[in-house]
Amino acid sequence: MQLKKFLLISLLMFLAVLTPVSAQYYLGSEERGVTLGAYAQAGFGAEFKETSNINSFYLRRAVVHAKAHITDKWTAMAVADFAKGFTLLDLYAQYSFAPQLNVRLGQFKNPVGWENQFNPATNELVEGSILTNYVLGNGPICPFFSGHSTTGRDIGLEVSGALFNGLLDYRLDVLNGNGINQVDNNTHKSFGGSLTLHPLEGLSLNGSALYGRINMDVAGVNTRVERLQWGAAAAYTSDMFDLRAEGLFLHLDSDKDKGYNVTGVAHFSDRVDGVAAFEQLFQAKDINILSAVGGVQYNFSKRCRLQAQYIFTQTKNKVVDATDDAHRVVAQLQVSF
């Protein structure tokens, strides 16, 4: 099984390298058909701490996506990741009554956070933001579903649209609140949404929130808690540079976590970008995390790139008065077709 998966991913990467541009492939007639695409991310990482050093090659993602154009207003989307077995990421149908009104049903990204909405193939940060991963429950540090990553997704219904000739985008969601590939485990639903204002060319101002009651493990006991995730962000993009800043907050009953991050990208040329980021996460359990990132990426095409980054992370535990510093270097190749 592992050999088959390795051969499949190797074939995808080989075909992507041979593709001169980051293309997608359309099968069908002009009115109906399926758009197919895929991308893979693999690389090498090394981490240096005072007590230990580790290094490894890794396969981060091997994603295949398909979008079905059923009619001019009705579409369906499926996205799956094969890097660690099979994980269904997105699966939904959407009907567009007008640009101002779209209805989506299925599994998709929840509305909270700015970076959370990014396709990993376009995120300049190789490992993503610690703050986003924590508040949205992406990965092993998910504070509300132990050992279960939500990848910032959920199952439910969404109404969205663009108003006033694209000046304002909105999303309104009713979700299970239990994360990816999970049915609801209680009778409560989570309610949320986002508003994004585009006052100037290249400038976006965003606010988002999601509130609900969830069941989570608290000291070995299945407990129902109130969860509120909310955030605010500002982002500016131009031909010379991109800059974004975001604040995110997580409330689990009386526990309140918060943090912020700032990311900048300098476009030195059509192919070379410089990347820098800084963030802090303040956990309710008196644990503070600081992270700084610096690096460069070379873009072979729109979504084929080579990234190299240095990541410094400092974790302070105020309870035991301890500080843990980690230095990490990563190099990652991304190919897409």
From TrEMBL:
InterPro entries: Porin_dom_sf (IPR023614), Porin_O/P (IPR010870). This is Phosphate-selective porin. It comes from Porphyromonas macacae. The lineage of its organism: Bacteria, Pseudomonadati, Bacteroidota, Bacteroidia, Bacteroidales.
